[in-house]
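FAQ
Q: What does a multi-component entry look like?
A: The components come first, one per line:
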Amino acid sequence: MRRTIALLAAFMGSTTIVAGCGVDDLSTTSATLTYWVAPMTSSLEQDEAVLEPILDEFTATTGIEVDVEVVPWSTLWDRIMAAVSSGRGPDVLTIGKAWTASLQATGALLPFTDDVMDEIGGADRFVPVTLRSVGVSGEPPAAVPLYTTAYALFYNTTLFEAAGIAAPPDTWQEFVDDAKRLTIDTDGDGEPDQWGVSIVGGSGITATHQAFILGRQHGGSLFDRDGNPQFDSSAQVAAVRQYVSLIATEHVVAPGNAEYTSALDAIDQFVAGGAAMFFGQSIHQSVLADMGFADYAVAPLPVLDPLPAGGRDTRTFVGGANLAVFANTDHRDAALALVEFLTSPDVQADWTAETATLPVVTAAYDEDDLDDAARVFATILRDHAEPMPQVPEHAQMEILVGGAITDLMARAATGPVTEDDIRAALSEADARLTATR
Amino acid sequence: MADRSFTARRSHRFTGVRGGARRWLPYALIGPALVVELVVHVVPMALGIWFSLTGLDRSTIGDWTGAPFVGLRNLRTGLDPAGPIGAELWATLARTAIFAIIVVTVSWSIGVVVAWLMASEFRGRSALRVLFLVPFAVPGFVAAIGWSFMFSRDYGAVNQLLVDGLGAVSDRPFWLIGDNAFWVVAVVWIWNVWPFAYLMSSAAMSAIPSDVHDASALDGAARWRQFWSISLPLIWPVNAVVILVMSLWAFNEFGVAYVLFGPRPPESATFVANLVHGHSFTDAAFGVGAAMNLLVAGLLLIGVLTYVRIARRCGWCSSWRCRCWAPVPREGRRA
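Then the predicted structure of the entire assembly, as tokens:
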């Protein structure tokens, strides 16, 4: 008998291990929502502090508990891919706008069909342009907008005044001229120590944003209508050349910018007076406020004048993040209640004001007492914004095109870069994307 | 006599009616280990092979059992040197091999020489020993972040030393972008791993009986000669394993480049593991990633088997300068 028990115990031991791999999280049966949030401020603690009162209010009104986890952008994509492949993820999650079409293709996100949209108060509440980056066109949105950001030219008003420049540049030529006037050797060592512009030259994601914006101005597009890449079209080559020329030929950007990978690097240089301008997003206002720097103003990014044939007056992408619901959530209704709450006008107004982002629902703009900079951003978003292409290969494009441009930047910082180099690099990125489709 | 009857009774119990249970007991006891081995090694490897034959991508990852079978397409895409993806893989493989050879040679040499220098008594030896193990104890993530500050072009300590301190170069070189990124990963890797070679060699050297050294000293061997002809051959069996392990680490290097440069390192610092990670998780082309992994695993297996064969022969003759690298003539072969 004892031996039988020993035998059983041994077998039980092995089966428990097997079972242990498949044990489900028991908390999914209780009425607690899991919510993965991407950071909106410069620290995870600050994000939690901003979110806490908002979610407390949600719990007080609905009785639904929310378990929040702030996941850094750098690991969020891998976390989501792991959740998608295992089928065990959060109920509600923030996703990058650019990722929406990719994740839509996995089928892991709850489609916001018309019925679902009605459940959360209707699609017409949202600012129209923000609804153009919630998945591929022709399919129900895979997410709803949560907050949005736009690019603008941040310029140091004191340095502009000192250089005798009255108004921020509007055309690309004015921008380059101003940047040259602002590139100054202040301490007489033969090397400029105040530069015209600061860019995040080592960031592939920033590079793709600029390739997109300048590409639209040249009449190009990263993907054609059918979603095929055309990274090396003459318009895209011209756009990338224009961006790289800031380091390569115009010499208005410090060569060291080529290894900047975070916007914070460029902001540091801007705040320290090492650069008079930088291409920032609305969200960077809160970073500048944290650093106690107020000596700046914002204006739309410069535009080519005259615009090439087919070119558009695009000065920003539609940035920010979307809010999605995991399709296999056990708490569909509670999750949708959270989505509706987070996109309600008063929550939008408060939350976006605290994080220097822009609301995605029209009503929030009436309710909000917007400051000057926010008005500039609201105008940019209304008149000069285009969403980046909604294609499943977006993340891959960011890596390939972004990598190609940052490599070109690195070369431009130490030596010449020709148009053929640019075309070759973009063609290679194009070929690699095509090869895995 | 009493003992004997006890033994008899006991053996009766073991060979008695429960013979079936007795036969199964060993299996039951190794059962858990077997299951763990299956779950941890065999199943993932089988899945990896299966994935390399399917079109597993972002549209099927949610339910990967439904990924379509595509035969050898991934292998063609991933490994064809004429295609854009395959060309990148082979270039990356070559780069990784060069990286592995450089960093293993350097970090192993440092480790062995330092272990030998530390073998004799001197003041402050134990303090130095602790100091040497610091790189091994610091989490790789933290170390890599620290190094990235040091290699920053404008404010980093490295350029301050090279340009402002020594004046060795006039133009501030970039380290974190372009071709120099390769050397940054190499330096960080060597810094991280040489204490391992030091630790293992130290342990092996301390096991060499001191009379061997004494005898050689009587014969007039200088320190260098002792190192070359006695210490090194005697610790060779340990070092054979150390080199193997370090080579595998170097070939599979992922973390340093990832922490320093993110998901898309500069081309010069992209190694095989970074490339496979990129294809699998950034591009969601899991099939292609798996096909690449299959090739890498196969190459590593061939490399390891060849190495072990050579190392075993050299281990027998206990000297790395014997003729063990060359094929052994039949009559000279030892059992």
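Q: Is there any commentary attached?
A: Sometimes. For this entry: Chain B has 14 helices and no strands.
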